[in-house]
Amino acid sequence: MVHWPETMVTWYAAEGVIFSGDAFGTFGALDGG
């Protein structure tokens, strides 16, 4: 779900997790491993 084009995705390689968040904070996470 994308609210705005400026929506950012953060990748934590150490945890193997990707977070996508907007101005209101994290709204979703996918466990990569």
Automatic annotation (TrEMBL):
Record's protein name: Uncharacterized protein
Spell out the Gene3D superfamilies in the cross-references. Ribonuclease Z/Hydroxyacylglutathione hydrolase-like (3.60.15.10)
Q: Which InterPro entries would you find in this protein's record?
A: RibonucZ/Hydroxyglut_hydro
